[in-house]
Amino acid sequence: FPVSSMLQAARGTVKASPNFNASADAEVLQKAMKGLGTDEDAILQLLTARSNAQRQEIKNTYKTLFGKDLIDDLKGELGGKFETLIVALMTPPIAYDVTSLRNAIKGAGTDEKVLVEILSSRTPEQVKDIIAAYRQEYDDDLEEDVCGDTSGHFKRLLVILLQGNIEADAQALFKAGEEKFGTDEQSFVTILGNRSAEHLRKVFDAYMKMSGYEMEESIQRETSGPLRDLLLAVVKCARSVPAYFAETLYYAMKGAGTDDNTLIRVMASRCEVDMMDIRNEFRRMFACSLHSMIKGDTGGDYRKALLLLCGGDDAKDSRGKAKINTKAQVQGSDVMLGMVMSM
Questions:
Q1: Which pTM does this prediction carry?
Q2: What would the pLDDT profile of 133-142 be if each residue is shown by its tens digit?
Q3: Same domain, 165 and 185
């Protein structure tokens, strides 16, 4: 493995089980689903304690031992949000992104939120893998499907992200962002799309020095709708992917109702990648732990499984000295924008 992927794996909360035995695990799962009733606890305790690669081995061994498809059996025994979460955990990461994108495009209407989240947060290498897997699975071109389902600058930026060209000139980038923003959306879309995160962070700093505004504030002021959401997501991911996902999780649970699809998608796709960092950012930004918010917002086996993926309650080992970026501060951009616009 490259060093970077090893370091990244160390930031996950779910790790490969050291004493892994696929046959023993397959038998535990079969026993949990056999006969009357289902032992949901046995299922969730086992699957949240295995890496995705190990779950794939269990799935293959289950088929060999029992002649059945493990995911089909799980779907037959489980239900609701808990089933959705377990199926997400049983799906290889790239395949999970591919399915999520397909459902976002091909469902009734377009789920822009899913397109924004996946395409702004994955690396160019991951996006290439997603495009190839999408073609293999559906015999369709992801870029064409996205183009057929979206429009305007939103579509253009999605296409640039899909093409993954990381080529930029700092001065030209800054000039286009500083001088043309608001009057020439196209150039701004191109700038943010043809990005490397490190490069963009320098551009944002320069933009702040020259204009007095954070890039996010300008985007809030000058754009709207799905394009604004996508531009903001790209900027936030350039600054910090874990902070972007911390905010995504927070707003999935905040207020009345829960956006369970987003909660499941993020928890399932980031638990082996950077969940420790997401938890740290969550605590820093919102002055409460991710664990406590999940606990208060969900229930049953679904909650148990999510908390195991979360992997610990930061509120317990905090001395209450977390740097507090309060909700008011996060939402305060609206107030600031109002002040800026009235100047």
A1: 0.84
A2: 999 999 999 9
A3: yes
